[in-house]
Hints:
Elements: H1 11-32, E1 39-40, E2 47-48, H2 60-68, E3 79-83, E4 89-93, E5 108-114, H3 120-125, H4 136-151, E6 154-159, H5 171-179, E7 185-189, E8 193-195, H6 202-209, E9 217-221, E10 241-249, H7 254-263, H8 282-294, E11 299-302, H9 304-307, E12 323-325, H10 332-355
Amino acid sequence: MMLPPTSTRSPLFALAVSAGFVLIFTFGFLAWQSPPRMTFTTEHEHITSPASDHVKSPAITDIIPLLYSSLTIAPAEPTFSYIDEGNNLTKLVLPPKPRYKKKLGKDVLILDLETRSLPSEKDFEKGEFHWKKLNHVSGGVFNHYAYALAHGYDYKFIKAAEFEDRHATWIKPSAFANQINDYKFIVFLDADATFRFMHLPLEWLLNYWKIEPHHSITMALDPWDPMHPEGNSDRFNRTLTNTGFVIVQNNANTQGILKAWHECPDDVRYQGCSEWKGPKFHEQSAFGEYVRYDYEKYIYELPCAEANGYPGVRQSHCEGRFIRHYWFEKSRIKGDFSDNMMNAITLPLQRIFAENTHGVVHEQKENVIL
């Protein structure tokens, strides 16, 4: 559950935006609803029904940015407040002199990588798509795409080829290297990881985490359990970073790091790295065991509590304050996504009733039949 941000916009402007959104979203939603059997087309990526062949309904790529326009906070907003699972108000304060004061827009790529198609595609092709049937992979990807739309970032879903000699998760370093030259930042999430607050922009997080220009790779630490310290540690008993959430920044050292990571299992630069072609944790173990030690200055490690795990994880307080990674209980991904979407939808409705902006509230001073 999130609190609406403090805004400097005028009340009339905010009301106009909210009212406009409600009308557009309502008519768009009604137009999207269909008879028992829908006709699907690929043209312009619109879903149409026979009753609306001559009516162009708003595209979801237009609706989502409008949906979040009154919720999204500014990149350098001094504070961010939210209500946690225990119904407690938490207020976070940006460090002084934030680096990012303007939106980065298309300089940011939100990236999904898979060797498989989304399970939801088959249902859609058969005209049988339903939210309740959506699995966690599609739910996570939809969260990432909607987040990109909400903030004007670029988005790509890359379907990569399978490796013949190593686990599929090894597609990450080469994909990062092939995309980063076109962007300032790549933000990658596994399908079982989500943005907890879809109205919180990446620029604010970069400021909050104090990510600097020389940081090439940013990842969160894994949980550390004193009862089983070897569980998520490398051979030096240092906690591994988790590759389920990665921020890649375009700087002079990035390509070298990604090349070293990608080639690690070849046992040329790092003898013994081929051990991690197949066994857990694949590319994550290789990065933690070898690569990060050659590039310490350019690797930034976030606390596990900030960008890993989910509510209920006690080790290292890994409860996913900003990024949630559901190693288990993956079905909860859909709940995070739906909570975010409903928060954005119901805020304008709350405002209408609280401020009576459309005259929907009428007083009945006497309970008599006139």
